[in-house]
Design brief:
3 domains, Serine Threonine Protein Phosphatase 5, Tetratricopeptide repeat, single chain, mainly alpha, 66% helix
Amino acid sequence: MRKHFTIGFFLALLLPGPAFATPYEDGIKAYDNGNYTSAMKLLQPLAKLGDAASAYKIGVMYDKGKGVMQDFKKAKKWYLLAADQGFAKAQNNLGYLYQHGEGVQQDYTKAMKWYKLAAAQNDAAAQSNIGLMYYWGNGVSQDFKKAVKWYQFGIKQGNARAQTNLGICYQNGQGVQKDYSKAVELYRLSAKQGFAIGQFNLAVMYNEGWGVEQNYDSALKWYQLAAEQGNAKAGFNIALMYENGNGVPKDYIQALKWFRSSVNKTNSKAPVWNIDPANITSEQISSVHSAAYKCIVSKFTDCP
């Protein structure tokens, strides 16, 4: 009996007790809930002790300006801490900083180095970014076929950006045979994941009837979804539909609204934007159209 009691007591010690969240888990929960100040307080001590996941998340906060002033140099510091430990997402994001010269001197060689380290760990975002390096010829000879190869690696994991980028290759016949239907298929996969550029590109295909039967209703649907995420070109194209009456009744008031919102000029006092909707003329909407187009094409550096 005594032996039986001893075994029973030992087994009881192995039964699970109440689970407590770790500081990291609490930090991530705070981050996900938008409580970035608490997230920083919880994660920074862990990061300073060398925790790669915490360092990566702090890097993201500085990179995106979440709860702190956006600071690419500080983002680089924390990404590097995590990247040196082999944290793939940090390696990818560090590569992006080097590719675009954000917080560091632009260096395509270093960008490719970090992307490849992340891609070797099957990081889909890094695989897609390597594809973009080859697509644009950033630090390497432009090679559409190599771009396609890397996009395909990302697509195997369902990466929405890779799906969109390969769709562009099929639409333009770059590294693959031109195939609008295949482009539509890839854009749709991306769009259904909520990727704004994929949604915009799918809308264009419906708008123009490329690789799919022309359908203004579907075009408007996908433009609106992309515009809701801040895609300026999508908002501009919705305005065009109302200006020209493509698939919707011609409506200069709606056109004005969308031209304004596409370039964040809803409350602008500049004369070109400050028009009385009730008395808007075709000449005025044409001027707004031109101003919005100029603004978007200049990447918002030439906006009245």
